[in-house]
Specification:
The protein folds into three domains: 168 residues, Alpha-D-Glucose-1,6-Bisphosphate, subunit A, domain 3 (Alpha-D-Glucose-1,6-Bisphosphate, Chain A, domain 3), CATH 3.40.120; 216 residues, Alpha-D-Glucose-1,6-Bisphosphate, Chain A, domain 3 (3-Layer(aba) Sandwich); 99 residues, Alpha-D-phosphohexomutase, C-terminal domain (TATA-Binding Protein, 2-Layer Sandwich). Helix 2 crosses helix 3, helix 4 crosses helix 6 and helix 9 packs across helix 12. It is of the alpha+beta class. Strands 2, 3, 4, 5, 6, 7 and 8 form a seven-stranded mixed beta sheet that branches. The chain has a five-stranded mixed beta sheet with strand order 15-14-16-17-20, sandwiched between helices. It contains 16 helices and 25 strands.
């Protein structure tokens, strides 16, 4: 059997993009996962990168989904068959695996579906020097891959377990904890009382250990043996209620958590009210005294309005765009370069501190650093976490989506406001959004269509990059107004 990765993607129903391969777990057969891994490694080999890695090793880890162990075994077998040594790092956070790979110049492969339901899964690939970028996709998609079909049954699963019991390699997880202990110190969080909402996050024990090692009093809550799809950007009503319940008696300074693969944080104030991820990103950047921030165009404009930062760079939505922007900022001479996304994932592109006792760059989504940044900013200024939000201009964001919305219809809607004539476009926008927020004052087409209105409110329409969905983001002076804007815009689109 010979096929290109592009053909494989078209045939198997498991999509491939910059975030890796992702699809239904039963579609991610052993054969499909094997071939995707083979394509990734071949693309690196064609660039000569694995030759630079130590002893041709590849680090592999996964989350706590029921299908993850099987897929990890398929990945490890593909790694071994390609002539590499798989380092089975176990179930550890995505940023822990990435850090280990970046620091040792190793490719790394994380089996995770992040926050999506447990009937789905994914494989995230990292190059030795950093995340996959959009420019890497074509090279992977054109790889010709093949395998002996006799190894697999008619459903694409191994006929027999060919792989050995891969020896565990726990060093990656331990180094991730030590990263924060060494930099912040054993008494950094002394006196703070924290609840860790553990659910089924792969980093649930890592987070508790890190916080305790920094001096906090930690209470683990909500541990689950069943996978729970906690999404830090679209927080479930159950999780909103849980945080309020945990904080009801005033026992905690904050409730903290992460998504499934623990690269995106959840941080509440002392009342159990979750901070939005882009607000947490601003506060963490403030604590780190960042001189350049890269963040997607959909994130809260308080980052500009607060005037805390010398440079704010707006990108398209997706961590590869944030990474590319941070690289440009560093190349231009900025010294404390960071990035964050609306989901709260925080990226560090510059070393902090001294050579002997510093925090190394981690240019991939991380959940621990923004949690620590918010907690330490509050402690440093002797304020409650709810008080930190009051430092920012009153800007609130909301979002929702139209699911099963044809891609062609999304394109038709955006084309209505992209005639080639700015005057005609503004007229069409003013007619469509009449009576909503005044006239359109500014148009941004960085990623979809983002409109700033006369009253300062913002509406952003963007088709999903990998699903038949149209997303709507809004920003306003109150949370209720932002939510009502989203509801009204989607209502008009469906009318």
């Amino acid at each position: 059997m010979k096929t290109t990765i592009q053909e494989l993607m078209n045939q198997c129903g498991v999509a491939f993009g910059t975030s890796g391969a992702r699809g239904l777990a039963n579609a991610m057969t052993d054969q499909v996962c094997y071939l995707y891994t083979q394509g990734f490694l071949q693309s690196l080999w064609s660039e000569g990168q694995p030759k630079q890695s130590t002893a041709r090793r590849v680090a592999v880890a996964g989350d706590l989904r029921p299908s993850t162990n099987r897929i990890m075994n398929s990945v490890c077998q593909a790694v071994a068959d390609a002539g590499f040594q798989p380092l089975h790092c176990g179930q550890i956070p995505s940023p822990a695996l990435a850090l280990f790979g970046f620091q040792n110049h190793l490719p790394s492969i994380m089996v995770t579906g992040s926050h999506i339901p447990d009937d789905r899964n994914g494989i995230k690939f990292n190059k030795p020097e950093g995340e996959l970028l959009k420019s890497d996709e074509p090279g992977i998609l054109r790889q010709v891959v093949g395998v002996d079909e006799a190894l697999f049954d008619d459903h694409g699963f191994f006929k027999k377990p060919l792989f050995p019991a891969w020896p565990d390699y726990p060093q990656a997880g331990e180094r991730y904890k030590k990263r924060y202990w060494d930099f912040f110190g054993a008494d950094a969080l002394q006196g703070m009382r924290l609840a860790v909402y553990q659910h089924s996050a792969v980093g649930r024990d890592f987070l508790a250990d890190i916080l305790q090692g920094l001096g906090a009093q930690v209470t683990p809550l909500g541990r689950s043996d069943t996978f729970i799809p906690v999404d830090t950007e679209a927080i479930r009503p159950e999780d909103v209620e849980l945080a309020r319940k945990y904080a009801a008696d005033g026992s905690f300074d904050a409730v903290v958590s992460t998504d499934g693969d623990s690269d995106r944080p959840l941080i509440s104030d002392e009342r159990g009210v979750w901070l939005r991820g882009d607000v947490a990103g601003i506060l963490c950047a403030r604590f780190l005294d960042a001189d350049s921030i890269s963040t997607p165009v959909s994130c809260n404009s308080a980052v500009e309005l607060c005037q805390w930062f010398p440079e704010v760079r707006r990108t398209r939505i997706g961590s590869p765009y944030v990474v590319a922007s941070m690289q440009e900022a560093s190349a231009a001479g900025r010294k404390r370069v960071v990035g964050y996304e609306a989901n709260g994932g925080f990226l560090l592109n510059s070393p902090l501190g001294s050579v002997s006792c510093g925090l190394a760059p981690l240019p991939t989504r991380d959940a621990v650093l923004p949690i620590l940044g918010v907690l330490l900013l509050a402690k440093k200024n002797a304020v409650k976490i709810s008080g930190l939000s009051q430092w920012l201009p009153p800007r609130f964001t909301a979002s929702d989506r139209l699911q099963r919305f044809p891609i062609s219809r999304s394109a038709e809607i955006l084309q209505r406001f992209n005639s080639g004539s700015e005057a005609n476009d503004r007229k069409a926008m003013d007619e469509f959004f009449a009576g909503l927020s005044g006239q359109v004052q500014h148009i941004n087409r960085t990623d979809g269509l983002r409109m700033t209105f006369a009253n300062g409110e913002i509406v952003h329409l963007r088709p999903s990059g990998n699903a038949p969905e149209l997303r709507c983001y809004a920003e306003a002076g109150t949370e209720d107004r932002a939510n009502r804007l989203v509801m009204e815009v989607l209502k008009r689109i469906l009318a």
